[in-house]
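Build the 3D complex.
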Amino acid sequence: MASLLQPDRVVYLVRGEKKIRAPLSQLYFCRYCSELRSLECVSHEVDSHYCPSCLENMPSAEAKLKKNRCANCFDCPCCMHTLSTRATNIPAPLPDDPTKTAMKKAYYLACGFCRWTSRDVGMADKSVASGGWQEPENPHTQRINKLIEYYQQLAHREKQDRDRKKMARRRQCMPLAFSQHTIHVVEKYGLGTRLQRQRPGAPISSLSGLSLKEGEEQKDITIEPAPALDEVEPLPEDCYSRPISLPEVTTLRQRLLQPDFQPAGASQLHPRHKHLLMKRSLRCRKCEHNLIFAHPIPSKRESQVLLTLTNPVENITHVTLAPCEDDDPDDINSTAKVVVPGKQLVLAGKDAAAEYDELAEPQDFQDDPDVVAFRKSNKIGFFIKVIPQKEEDADVTVSFKIRHDFRNLAAPVRPSEEGGAAAAPAPAESIWLTHHVELRLGPLAP
Amino acid sequence: CHFPSVKIAAGAVVCVESEIRGDVTIGPRTVVHPKARIIAEAGPIVIGEGNLIEEQALIINGYPENITPESEVEPKTMTIGMNNVFEVGCVSQALKIGDNNVIESKADVGRNVILTSGCIIGAFCQVNTCEVIPENTVIYGSGCMRRVQTERPQPQTLQLDFLMKILPNYHHLKKTVKASHNAS
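Done.
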């Protein structure tokens, strides 16, 4: 529908901080304010992290520890597709009887898209299906760890200095409050405030959680500055004359996806754990409630003059269309006049069981054949007349207002005024909503 | 002069719904799915053993750019080796295909390409250059990126065995015709 083909043909006006025109498939509806919201009118918050291939959810703290990477899934270093584990049967000598050979399963990683396998870089087949694959160690880990420790200590010291200054100024406040206040500053160099110890043989890289505990006496860590070399290793002599074998050279993208090693040769490309994606939760800025995703009310798909309205809710919806007034401040884009049907259109409710019910009674709506083209369960097609105003118009645009009733079934129950036990929930009231809609109909036929 | 006909070796499974036109020889253990098309227009086609030609695949030995030359052009034979896989919807006009190649779905291989062995033309890749593709090359991606793999793709023996058992249960097969006429 609108989201797959021609998404920009029908746009709705969103009156937020800025006036945004967007197709309905990209808009959200806040149940509490009863207004349309676009992506710019909502605040995004990180809800949780998940792996796109195994869909494993993990809390943000754990994700931070694992450097935002999944523990089980790997990315192909060649084409960044997800790697799958394949098994082969290998004859291997039995541990009891070395003369006999039995078929043992050996597992290797393979990419379905570019046909890369873990054997290409010389990684031996593993005997366990998952968990056997190690990421190579970064040779600079120790130096980086030491630098991080040093800077964490520095940040801690700076924080203490700041606290001391603030305490000197306002003595009556609790000192604890200030430590809490400056915690965001400590995070500048920190990787978390939990004490982590490196576990031997841990599959995740060793740059995890170094920390400082509050008030703990740390010995002064000094670091040596990186030594500057006078002599640099010269280039090989045949650097300019040796012919390049393109399949052996990594592309820039492949190289930079592994900033630790940046291998120049394709035989050094090792797979990395898959990056996690974030699930966002959206919060309406006005009323601070969480939005539901894409609860569209009428959605339109149009051909030249025939428009369809689909009713996604289960009760009958009444829709009135009205043209924009002459001096409507929202009406800036229209290049043609539109004559909309003046009468109210009635849309039947969505009945999910209707397609299975063979004896369903035909809906009895008295439809004016000039206005209503067809009616099918919860859809209706109706005509509007478009009068282009310009002689040659590359993109005929019309705008009008659509007004419909909406019953908010999920609104919070208002407490009954009589008090007492088990008040019946007040029936959800219908409210009338008006939206400004613009249609882009395309070029005029010559 | 011999009447151009389709010669299907014993052991090949060729469904009746496939369209085979012209002088085509199909080797043993080759499976041709229904709706596959093998058209020998500008010359004969010789297909080896153990090949797998899936639905809607098109193997055509046609005149370049569909222009029938008015003067007699010497017909060139299209040779296809062993254990190749032509996946669903692919188009192959390559005159010479070696062994163990895989042409994935909706790929398009031009007439002047020569596939050696172990080559994999990825899905929807269009290769119409004038070259010999070196062994074990993988062409993949929307930009037809290439890389060399260390091992050739495995022959689809399991799949071939399965199909040779199952297809006759559901489809009529074209009769095998021996290439050399033996009075038996």
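The mean pLDDT of chain A is 69.
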